[in-house]
Amino acid sequence: MRIISGKYKGRRITPPSNISARPTTDFAKEGLFNILNNRLDYEETHVLDLFAGTGGISFELASRGCPSVTLVEQARTQLNFIRKTISELKIENIHVIQGDVFKYIQSCGVRFDFIFADPPYALEQLPQIPDLIFEHNLLKENGLFILEHPSKMSFDNHQRFSEHRNYGNVNFSFFE
To answer: pLDDT tens for residues 70-117?
Structure first.
């Protein structure tokens, strides 16, 4: 895993082998950020990264200058790795929350410009995540929410769905 651009460009980050997360592939991450480069002013974007896993998306956004990146992850092994990487790189704009994403969504009370969620593909509640984001008003006006999901799922009929992109086995649905 590597950071593609920004302050930490080229830094390789190697998660320990005991992490159960499925990091977004570099290929998919590059494709995603090629799109985001034209949609986000990173220096003005406040981010929420749900199911942060190894923190790859958060590290990329922090590297590109987002003033605040809040990441939520429940697994202790992943959190230890994320905290270690934040410390090694001396990243100051990432706020780490250990906890259940669904409880966080219900109690958050903050709105974000960009929300990214990469839940485990087998997660039973995965199809409800877009509705929860909008029901709890987590996205600012003109904000963007992207959900990574397996190819067998489609969100094309969701009222806030705007587009779908796929990069190999990685699928992103965009909501506005």
So the answer is: 999 999 999 999 999 999 999 999 999 999 999 999 999 999 999 999
Predicted structure pTM score:
0.95
DSSP E strands in 60-136: the ranges are 68-73, 94-98, 112-117
Amino acid at 125: Q
How far apart (Å, rounded) are the C-alpha atoms in residues 43 and 126? 30
Give the number of other CB atoms < 10 A from CB of residue 92. Answer: 9
Candidates 1.10.10.10, 3.40.1050.10, 3.40.50.150, 3.40.50.720; CATH matching 26-33+54-175: 3.40.50.150
Output the CA–CA distances (angstroms, integers) from residue 35 to 21, 30, 77, 124, 166, in the order listed: 24, 9, 31, 29, 12
Backbone angles phi, psi at 128, to 5 degrees: -85, -10
Residue holding tokens 């992207």? 146
